[in-house]
Structure formats: structure tokens, C-alpha cells
Amino acid sequence: MASWDDLVSFVRVRYEIMRSSEAELWFNLPTTQERTQLVVVRHKADADGQAWAQIESPIGRIADLDLPLLLAKASESVVGGVTAEDGVALFRHSIPLHEGELTGFDLPFRLVVKAADELEELLTGKDEH
Prior knowledge:
By secondary structure, the chain is an alpha+beta fold. It contains three helices and six strands, in the order αββββαββα. The chain has a single domain, classed as Yope Regulator, Chain: A, CATH 3.30.1460. It starts with a helix and ends in a 5-residue tail after the last helix.
């Protein structure tokens, strides 16, 4: 059974962590060309107390985005979806930690970063996140 501590150890050897706390890991990852993408992984628990890793990356300020286009483009991803927090659109996906296979973290993690960066570039033309 994988734990949050197992996940932290797993990502430390694979990615450069920008900032961390007891229940969060922050990254600023290179994507394409000279672009980077901010991403946070949070330790969450569901209603039954099961541990999850929530992967989240900002796209842009909601007020500045074409929301129908955002939703249409986000629906093309095989993982995750769009959510909003404090006026910012985010691309988010969660994986259960209780299944024990941390190798299943890498692909969704990279896909969230890729989707958020592509959506940010398409919808804002900027690289703020």
C-alpha cells in the first residue's frame, strides 16, 4: 500500500520540487520551447478516509478565458478536468494512493501539466503559470 510519504520519496528522485509542506508539493516544470508550468500535488482524503494525490495546474483567470472553448478543449484530455478556485481555472486529476503502484503517478502527472500548459497558451497566449 502506497502512502503520501512514499509518493513524496518517489517524486523527489524524478522531479525538482520547488516548495513543499506536510501535504503539498509544488513544481515549476519545463514544458515546450521556453515555457514552464506550475503544478501542485496535494495529499487529500475522501469521505471514507482513503488517501489520494490531487494533481492541479492553473490555466488562467476565469474572467479572461473563453469558457466554452476551455471546456471543449479540456474534454479532449483522457485524464482530469477543469475546476475553478479563487477566480482561477485549474486543470485537475486525482489518483488513489491505496492501490500501491506509484508508477501510475507519472503519466497522469505529466498529462495534467501538458493539458494545463496547452490550455493556458491557447486561451491566454501567455506563460504566467
